[in-house]
Amino acid sequence: MKLWGGRFTKPTNELVDEYTSSIQFDQKLAQQDIKGSLAHVGMLASCQIISKEEAATISKGLTAVAEKIQNGDAELSEDHEDIHMNIEKLLIEEVGPVGGKLHTGRSRNDQVALDMRLYLRESIVVLTDLLVQVQESLIGQAEKNIDTILPGYTHLQRAQPVRFAHHLMAYVFMLQRDADRLKDSYKRVNQSPLGAGALAGTTFPINREQVADSLNFDGICENSLDAVSDRDFVVEFLSNASLISMHLSRLCEELVQWSSAEFNFIELDDAFSTGSSMMPQKKNPDVAELVRGKTGRVYGHLMGMLTTLKALPLAYNKDMQEDKEGMFDTVDTLKGALSLFAPMISSMQVKKDEMYDAVQKDYSNATDLADYLVQQDIPFREAHAIVGQIVLYSIEQNKYLLQLTLDEFQQFSSSIGEDIYEALKPESVVNARNVKGATSRDQVKEQFHHAYHFIDGNKSWIQSYEQSAENSNFLSF
Ligand code: ARG
User: Which ranges carry the Argininosuccinate lyase C-terminal domain (predicted)?
Assistant: First the structure.
């Protein structure tokens, strides 16, 4: 007999059970579901909707069910459709008919919205923590490579030299925006839908704030129709996850390129590389490739969720059961990628000499030659044209700028003096860029200081929310 079987005259078709059930994947919400139920039952007792003894029995039963599920001792079945009804069934088996009082004043519609929010807020804290670990691994490499210079690129053509630390710090700032977005989204996740009932609220004199408080929510969803049909927080998470994946995939692409023989700028540690079953010499950057590849599924889940929600009338519709797998998979995908990323970055070997060599074998100091001429009061546009000619000449002569003699330079401009050789050195070129945010040593160090500061901020945010999750006191009634 189904929990809702009263008005039915025959059993559901087996295929329908299979098709409509979600227990295969929503069992992931078991602990959140029980946590929510404990808070609900505590509130029912303190509002005198059920007795304290009944609440105590139900709570004990729920705790026992939680343990059984945790240890794999509970049978979760498609016959009971989803995690909510499976748990209710297990509870009734555990404590008898009084277990049937748990669902007073509640619907699966507000219950599932609650579970999703509890799951997501925990995941946001974990993911922010993992983001911080990646930021720290990047800063660690940046500090070690403050004096490592490599070509900076535009259009994947060598453009101007930059410090490797500067390049890595670009990702630290991207990840900081990601962390900020996650932290900001937490506020919208952290509102309690419980008490919205199926859609219109409930006739029982429940106390929504009490449940919200005991679960450490910041407040309650103010409109019951919205409370049960809002999945904006899932979309927002998937969107934030898409940006994180996009950022990681860009860095992955660079790691893949840099570790090729063509670039030869880094070597990934053996522990974070894989071999080929056929070609014995191969060492492949599989982790970086796979993180890059998995970006596809994360974007896919975002599109999937947006499309599922499009044009859904209020309030709950079964379509919304489709909100889970994409969210779970996204959380797992990001956890996997971020957990591997930090040690992969920390353990990679940076080939300083090869990077420096690359900088010396290009014309990426051409802008500096033009800037030098500008300092001799030649208008920039004219200087640009002169340097264009010098580069053309150098290419013909098979030389780089630093290999030209002073005579050769002076054929193009008499304003060029002996000091040009100092000005065109990679170290001078990077240090000459000393405006805020640029690649000089001082400015890169300045970036470190900003980063230490916002990473500290991330860490204290994580700490306070970890604590508030632990301190949920849903057992006090
Ligand atoms: N398994 C459902 C879901 O995840 C729970 C809510 C179902 N509510 C309902 N009235 N059918 O969306």
Answer: 363-431
